[in-house]
Amino acid sequence: MSMQTSLHLKDYICAGYPAIVLNTSEEERAIEECCRIAKNAKMQFYVWSETKGVIQYFLDKNSKDISQKEVNTGVSPDEDALNQGLNYGNDVIYCMLDFHPYIKAPSVWRTAKDVFSKAKTQGIIYLFVSSKFDVPPELEHEVITTNLDLPKKDDLREIAIEICKAYRVNIPKNIDSAIDAALGLTMFEAENAFATAFSKMKTFDVDIINNVKKQIICKDGLLEYMQSKETLETVGGMKEFISYAQERFSAYSEEAQNYGLPYPKGVLLVGIPGCGKSLAAKALSNMWKKPLLKLDLGKLFGSLVGDTEAKTRRALEIAEAMAPAILWIDEIEKGLSGVGSSGKTDSGVTSRMFGTILTWLQEKEAPVYVIATANNISSLPPEFLRKGRFDEIFFVDLPSEEERKEIFKIQIEKKKRKSKDFDIDRLASLSDGYTGAEIEECVVSSMFYAWNDGKRPYTTEDLETAISKIQPMAKGIMSDTVSALRTWSTTHGIRNANVAPKVQLSTNLAETKGSRVIRFEEGEEK
Predict the structure, then answer these.
(1) How far apart are CA 507 and CA 473, in angstroms?
(2) Is residue 525 left, alpha or beta, with left meaning phi > 0 and alpha meaning psi from -120 to 50?
C-alpha cells in the first residue's frame, strides 16, 4: 500500500469515480492539487461553497498561478447544490467544500444517489472536501474516501524560504534540520511552527519546531510523540537485540544507501511483561536520534462507517511523513486480538484495520522502523509473523543472573546511590525469576523501608527484605505463560534477545497442566 494519497486522488479522478471524499483541512492545497489534475486530464474545475456559490478555477499555462471566475452565487446548500454540478457539461470536477452537515438529510443523500448515477455517464466527478466527512451508510457503496498527502521536504523548503523573506533574513544554515523537524505537519501547521520559532528565537529553532509538532500530532490522539531519557546504558540485558539494532542502524547512512542497503523494516519483540521491551524502544530512539512515535491501536477504532480505516491510514501517513522515524506499537496483540471473529462481532472493522497494517508493513518504502511488542503470542494472527513483515522476531526472556546484576546496578545508580556499596552478587542470586520491572520495584520498596526507618540510606539488607516480600509473576500466576513462550521460541527457532542462558523456574513445562504449545505454521493452538 503506497501512502502517496495525492496520487490516489489523481487515480480516482482519472478512473472516473463519480463521488470522492477528500479528508483534509487544507482547502487551498486541495484546490491547487485539483487544478493541476484538471489541467492534465483536460477537465473543467468548479468549486461550490455555501458562502461564495460556484466558482470556476483555472491554472495558467506555466501551472503556477490560479485564476477564478464567479459562475453562480445563489446556490443553496441542499439538493440544489448537488444538482448544480450537472449543469457545466462533461468532463468536470465539481468540488463541494464543507458539505458534510447537509449530506445527512434523507432528501439530500437520496438526491446524491440520483446525481452520482447521472454524473458517471457524463464524466462528472463530485469531490467533497472537508476536514472530516462522515459518509452516510446509504452512500457507503457510492463514495470512495482518500486523504491529501502531507507535504514533502521540497514543499516545506518553499515555506521556510518564504518565512525568511517575510522576516527579511538570510536563509539559516540549519534550514535542513528545521525541515526534517517539520515533517509530518500540514503546510499551514509547518508555516505556524516556523513562524513561532522565528518570533521567539529569530531563527529556525529545532526544539521549538519539535515542541509545536508534538502538540499538533498529539491533539487527535492517533500517535503519541514520545520523549525519553533512556539510553542503551539504562537497558539491563537484551545484549543480542541491542547488538542487532546497532548493526541495522548503519543502513540509514548515505554511504549505506549508495551501496544499495535497504532500509530495515523493524522487529517484533515477544516476551514476558516487565523484561524491557518498551525500554528498548525508547533507548533505540535516543541512540538513533530519531523521533519515537507510539501507536495505540485501541485509539484507532471509530464509531462511524470507515472511521477506523481512515484513522489507521492517517496514523501511518503521519509516521511516513516524519521518516526517518521509529514507530512503536506496544502490546500489539491487544489491538489485534479480535481479528479472527471480526466479521461476526464488529462488521469486519478489526480485520480491515489489520489488513491495512499488514500491507503497510510488507510494502512500505519510507524509513519507518517498526518496533512492535507483544506479551501473549497466542493472540497474534499467524500471518502477522510471516517473513517480510519484520526483519526479525526476538524472544525476550527473564533476565539471567548476570543480567540481574546489571539491572540492580542500573536501578541503584538511578536512585542516587553507588552500586559498589551493595552486595550485587547476593541480590542477583536471591532474585532468580524476577523481571526487570520487579527488580526496580525491589529498589523502590527498599528506599521506602529506609526512609520510614529514620530517613537513613537504604542498604543491601533493605533490598533483601524487599525481594523476600515480592512474589515474582514468573513463578506464580504467569508460570504457565512463561513456559509456553519459551517452548514456542525454541520450537520455532526464535532468536533470543538475551545472550546469557535462560534462568530455570520451579515450574516444569512437562508437568504443567494448561500450558499451550503454539504452532503458527498451521495457524492453530495445541
Answers:
(1) 12
(2) beta
